[in-house]
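Hi team,

As requested, here is the filled-out complex form for the flavin mononucleotide run. I kept the field names the same as last time so the parser does not choke. Let me know if anything looks off before we queue the next batch.

— J.
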Amino acid sequence: MKKLVVFYSLEGNTKYIAQAIAEEIAADLLELKAVKEINKKSLFRFLHGGKQAIRKEQPELLPLDKDPQDYDLIILGTPVWAWTYSAPLHTFLCQNKIENKKIAFFCCHGGDKGKTLQHLENILKDNKILGKSDYFNPLKKDPEQNRKKAVEWAKGITISAQN
Ligand SMILES: Cc1cc2nc3c(=O)[nH]c(=O)nc-3n(C[C@H](O)[C@H](O)[C@H](O)COP(=O)(O)O)c2cc1C
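And here is what came back:
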């Protein structure tokens, strides 16, 4: 079974979880990058990214170095932006028809994930959804505990994916 972890991360939290998962389950990693990245040091990043997410904008992505269609199990990771998934992940989901795959997804947030996981479930409804998970600013709060949580979750997902 070919496994892929697709993620976007502005400030590193989602990347940290995605890398831990990919390492544990021997999955390939696909990091999404916007052509015009938001300045993560700017105080306006909430405004810029929040506006993109609320307006369902599709910021242009750098070319992908993996084709999601080559994979059986896809795990998606995103930060929460304005109570939903990030705009670069939205671009990816609009430009790559993900269907009939085994899917799991997770988000990283700052304490209020809103309906992010529900929104992902809706847009990925033509797939077999095996699980969802979320992490509260894992790099700041408790990196090791969050890493363990993610790794255990991902191991469970791969077992379900084999059945
Ligand atoms: C544009 C923007 C919007 C955000 N909106 C929310 C939000 O609605 N709810 C929340 O709990 N955290 C929100 N956050 C915080 C991030 O979701 C959180 O810090 C996450 O761990 C960042 O992941 P990353 O490091 O992979 O980018 C927002 C952050 C940004 C930059």
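Two things worth flagging: The mean pLDDT is 97. The chain has one domain: 3-162.

Thanks,
J.
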